[in-house]
Specification:
alpha+beta; 6-stranded mixed β-sheet; 6-stranded antiparallel β-sheet; Purple Acid Phosphatase, chain A, domain 2; single chain; 2 domains; binds fe (ii) ion; Immunoglobulin-like; about 500 residues
Length: about 500
Amino acid sequence: MLLAILISPIPLTLMGNRGIQITSLVDSAIIADSSFFIRGPTVNMVTNESAMIFWRTEGVTNATVWYGLNESVIEKIENTTLDINHRVPLIGLDIDTRYFYKVSSNNTESQLYHFRTAPADGARFRMIIIGDNRPTLVSYIQPEEFKELSQMIVDEDPHIVVMSGDYVLEVNENHEDNLAGWAAFTNISDSIGHYAPIYGALGNHDTGAKTGTLNLDYYFDAFEQYDEPSTYFSFDYAGVHFIFLDTEQQYLEGRITGDQYNWLVNDLESTDCPMKYVIGHRPMYPLNHLGDSIDSKPDERIRLQQLFEEHNVTAYICGHDHLFNRLTVNGLVHIISGGGGAPLVYTQWGGAYYHYTRVDSSYNHVNISSVKLSGEIGHNYQLPYTGPIEIALRAIWNGSSKQPNTLPEIYFSEIPIEKYYCWDSVANQTELIGLPNANGLHTLDVYAMNSDEVWSHDRFVFTTVGATTTTTQTTASFPLESLVIGGVVVAGVVIVLILVYRRRQP
Ligand SMILES: [Fe+2]
């Protein structure tokens, strides 16, 4: 139903979670033809003993939460202060326990919902990741895929939900357009938020950057999360430290630097949690958005990768590329989960399917699966990983044509005990050099040995163009195996001929 926006003469405000007043996005608008509950109720900022129930009503009302261990909810918390935004904390809850709840305002009751408190530190919990659900063309029409995936996410019965950004098409100068766009998103996200806390990273489509001035009020209004109105924040859940980063800082897009980087270092040094997840919108190793992600400043990306390695971060979770990809670099898992509904992008690395990512996580075991709209598992990866070293190529496509000396990006899933690079089956080198300075096909063999002395090998093929020498290299047409096989065949033929010749000798 198309939303009709009416302007209200009554200015209202809502309170940020740190007690800072920010302008309400519904203060000047009442959405006609909607239900009594404009937002929620949703469960937010859940710990192993507390939660915060949020909802928004069409007009100012009182607020009551009913909750309990079964559907006959008998506990009651009342707030008689009249408001349109209601935030009621539940405290003294039992650990790892399902609670049922409903809310009422001015005697109008919501449906009954339920959520689970966090388990003990290190115990298993289910996290769902979804990103890049944004519409394609019309701001207030969310993709059908996002609606379907949201229902599937509810059916997964998650403890916690992480969104990796790009919730709306854009934030522009038209407040009513923006309200409609964000309401279309929260109508769906709240259908998940009834049952599990949602935490969302800021995406480039969510900021209004194209207008020249960031307008983050809509983003803050869509989520009830820690440390608002900061766009980067952290919290602990089940003994796991979660860090949300802002890759959209004005004039610093795609970078984690300055005050935010200093905050990040301090935050990582301050936590006692042995396990950490970091979430941001833009990838560190993009497949599609090359050069406008954290790869835009190679030195800063290396610095961030090393920081995460030093502090045993388990995974960096992001979106921005509209696909699924998992890459492990020196033990740090990178998950791109950007298939929430926006148009898919197709790259050589695959993963172009609508999905969410399910992570069953404990200190002992992490099971990561991308789940397609069909319910099929697109990819599965588990920690601890015990297989041979994975060798991955990024940035340059396998088979692509490049200038001489262009350096392919080769990554190992763990730091090898030994490694070699070999261009055109000629000589093994311990350091990778760029494409040979000779036009034509070239092979790059990469070898890596893990601590169990198991070798991994992968071969990539590139074509050099624009070489400064006149020699044309065609080694890739005759890779090493071919040469060996060819040599064996020739030797065999020679031996047969010799034997035939000898038999014919008198
Ligand atoms: Fe994006």
